[in-house]
Amino acid sequence: MSRVPSPAARPTPSAGQVFESVWTPDWPLDPARALAPHRRGTGDPTMRITDDGLWRTTTTAEGSATVRIAVSAGTVRISAWGPGAEQAGAAVPEWLGAADHPEGFDPSGHPVVAELHRTTRWLRLGRTGRTWDALVPAVLEQKVTTAEAYQVWRELLRLAGEPAPGPAPEGMRVPPSAQRVLEVTDWEWHRCGLDGARRRALRAVASVASRLEPEAAGDSAALQRRLCSIPGIGVWTAAEVVQRALGCPDSVSVGDYHLKNIVGWSLAGRRTTDDAGMLALLEPWRGQRQRVVRLILAGGARRPRRGPRFAPTDYRGI
């Protein structure tokens, strides 16, 4: 993962600091890999990796927060700033996988899975406890290329995200609140490059955002049902959200353009033609299927790319 130098002009980390904690995990933690599912490209304004640690912004029930995570000799030092600093800082161990329990996972159903489990000891399924932060980018990623979704995410944060509190690296932004999303005009959405279908879905989830957080929506299954009841939100988006917000070990992103083939190539040595075929391959690990997917994404085989890539659509010119 790319790194950027620490800006020389940035205030020292002690300036305005409101939360600090130290934590020692009992596994070989790598914060960058642990939080990779939350990073939308190297230019994501909500996450930066610098010489002095990994920086991430988040929303909380108390307000926005900036968190810095630094690891030295196995010890994790957590610093946080902003109205939501205490909530966000206290949640960092769970972000990184402290609430995950991989010891009950049996990888013996396939030699590839067993080997990946043996060699990927750093993998833990983290949970942020924040539906909104996972839901907004997931909606933007519906039925478009990854590059297009990342571009819209950056444009939305520049337009509607507030500056990161505290001594964050220059250009970092906090995901916009649900109220701020509802205030964005159609013309502004058009300038961001967001099409009408995703625009309507984003407004729909913003209108009920307070009822989608885990404390109101319940467990993974209940949250997925609630999400899928919202117009424009399907099973793929719901799975993407519970994987990040709740660390769900079983939810699979059915409907993903590439995932079925990645799983098929790793477990069967061939492309899988549909989601049913992918789920059949993952069936031996029901209850832990997302963990198997994460292992495969971390080190599984890939089919060589020989054909042309799908070209993104620029909705700003339409």
UniProtKB/TrEMBL annotation:
Cited Gene3D superfamilies: Hypothetical protein, domain 2
Keywords carried by this UniProt record: DNA damage, DNA repair
InterPro entries named among the record's database cross-references: Alkylbase_DNA_Glycosylase/TA, DNA_glycosylase
Keyword Cell inner membrane tagged: no
Name of this chain's protein: DNA-3-methyladenine glycosylase family protein
Biological source species: Blastococcus deserti
